[in-house]
Give the backbone structure.
Amino acid sequence: MGTAAGRTRPSWKVWAVIAVLVVVVAGLLHAYRNTNVLTADRLCGGLVSAPGADAVLPGSGRVSAEGDGIADDLPDTECEVEKSSVVLGAGKGSLSFYVWEERGDFPFVNDGWPGAAQTSFFSGPVTGGVSKYEGWVLLPEKCWTTRPVILKASSSEPVADARAFSVLITDAARAIAAKAACGDLPKEPGTLLPPRSEAARPASEGRLCGLDGFSMPGQVAADAEVLEEGQAASADLWSCTVSLDDDSRDVVRRDGFMTYSAARDPLLLAAVKKAPGTRKGTAPGGLEADVVESHRIVLPCAQGAVYLAMEPRLQYLETRERNPRIPALDPLFESFVRSAVKAFDCGTTTR
């Protein structure tokens, strides 16, 4: 057996190599756990852009994903993207992507979607919208089966950059349409149509929701301030929620009095007409129209068509319950249609 004195100690060169290896391994581990240096450009089988998701989720960190990506049966498509880091105070949050079938006028229906008046819409080569927590893109008509098909994305954290969010979901929808060979979409959407302001603003007398000659006489108490929020009329995707600054309960006041909506986007109009029960009928004023529901219609115009809808909110329901003199829905809808056909350039119909 040798003695301790006979053993050879590692030279300084060996220690130097070991130190370099430790630094390299530590650097790679840091890069893997806290940055996107080692992350693939696309996640979930090519569905989601990693740089795009990184730009939407707040802070810095590594983007990772779960999901098989674009399914042969499109509504089976799911993807979960997460940003994480072991660095204190770094980025966090997750994005969920789904494909599913929806009713055609889903952006304007108060049923599990963010208020249309708080949405930044985009229209043209691609149709969609984004809010602080959710975004959607309507897939091309060739991708539909019995109902319109959309890509939906939800964020666990408020999205600060609406444009980056719209680019991310448009890119994902483009990947789906390409894989399914059901249409072409651009890499980025067109100009965003944001709400006029982040909070409700006082309505102009005789120009409610930006529609000339539209007002609320006889609908509310004379001393109640009327507030409005939504996009500027007349955008191709437009909505306006009217509320009253009165003594209503907070939850009722937040929900608002009435929501008015309009759309001239061709793809969304095609989706609306897919709604079960849509029939030929008559709009207020005797105009022929496709009637989706009692206060949801599609009017043919000299050029294209326009979807017009009105939805009562909690404030209206409670106000009318207390005061039966508040007008019923039919005359209110007629007043809206009369103003909207002018604002949305549908004063002359094709029939």
About this structure: The chain is about 25% helix and 25% strand. The mean pLDDT is 85. The helical segments are 12-34, 50-56, 162-180, 250-255, 266-272, 314-322, 329-343. The radius of gyration is 27 Å.
